Amino acid sequence: MLCWHEMPQLDPSAFPDYERAILARASMGDVSLGFARLGPCALLGAFDDPDRSLRRSFVDKHLPIVRRRTGGGSLYVDAGTTLMVAALPRALAPRHTLTEIIVMVGTVMAEALCHQGIPATFTAPNDITEDGRKRGSVFAVVVDDQILIEAALLFAVDIESLMKTIKLPLEKLSGAGLLAAAQRFAPIGGTEPSAVAARIYPEIVTALAMRLTVDAAPQAPPAVRIGPLPTCQGAPPHDVSAFLKTPGGVLYLDIRLDGKRVRAARIVGGVQCARATDLERLANALTGVRLDELETAVWAAAPDDTLGFDRYDLGYLARLCVERHVLGGRLGIPRDAERVTLYSPRRDQGFADLLADVGALLLPYCAKPAWCKWRHRDGCPECGQCAVGEAYRLGRERGLPVTTITRYEHLHMVLAQLRAAGIRAFLGVCCTEFFLKRDQAFIEAGLGALFIDIGGDTCYTLRAEESAYLGQFTAEATLDPLLLDRVLRLGDTH
Ligand code: SF4
Ligand code: SF4
To answer: In the chain, how many domains are there?
Structure first.
């Protein structure tokens, strides 16, 4: 039997108890399913790091943070979003992997929407979309002998609140930016979300019951308690870290060191694993491991049931961390290596290989002073009034072609030119967020790269990404010429 209900407006702090209630109801062998609407909150994925995924400066003042049991990306949730929370006995899908469970539920939900005249398809790894625009997302985790499924259905989207809450990958807050971001969503509620919901809920229930070959019946919603929410701590201090973008989300590895061994490791990200303890168990298995054996140790202990990433991604993440540690030693100031990121398209080059291959220096226009007439132009006469001039000097004295990237299309063009000129790698200066969000440009170019992070006001802290792509960002980011000099000097020795 599939017993289902609609939950009237739920206080965000009652959500953990609601999850417990759904699981408890299903423990007798039935499927338990509820459609719930929460008051405004940041709904954190089980493995996500709130400091990396949420804009804490806004969220801490305005919204409760609720951690859900399923992994995946963190969400801004309000009354426009319906959360479908379902628990089913593992015996109903005994051999399904996490990916297969999510595909099954996502496909059933998309088909149910289509039956109601709302076009939708399931898009791997976990979205329900229409023509590339998001209508919802599906998350799942195995809890003992049950599968907990949580799906977000977007009936209406408050783009401004969503963008103030979630850090990536979102566009800016100007009118045009909001419009562009809004176009990435296809809310299913139309002008009458309640009427649409009343049609869709039973359709989803019927389709899911058919798929699981069980009968469906309505049930009263469970009584839930409003509880105090635990404070969401950010990352504890670490000695070295690395990140890796995968189709399943961005993975982060933070390590505290004891000499050349791991004292403590932490693996987080907006990713999905079959079991709640998967990443914690992996991190614990790394305690005491020597850095030169870290990648092998990760392969040996990595979870085998994950969505959109695998043990080789986790192993490579470990290698990136070790590479950063080695670079930190060579730079003399280990913390500085945290501001240098390696990008190897085939994952076969470390810092030393890339440094030896660097054939160009790319700088962002945003690090030039707002008053400089060269800010929106390629080039710099090295007038001596800013760090970009120093960067030009450092590049030119090594015979490296130096380019100021003035807009996103310009970056594409320059990368194509570098590749055509036979250059295998470049040294780029940009903010980490740009690299994470716009990695497609680098993937397409197929060039290796070392990126030095910029500081100060980036257009991500100011939420002005889109004007930055158009080359109109007015605040100034800070480029560290000393770090650039030290990285270039390492290359000189090759
Ligand atoms: S050094 Fe170059 S970029 Fe900096 S202010 Fe002078 S001309 Fe402008
Ligand atoms: S995204 Fe913005 S802050 Fe980052 S490098 Fe580009 S222009 Fe600068």
So the answer is: 3
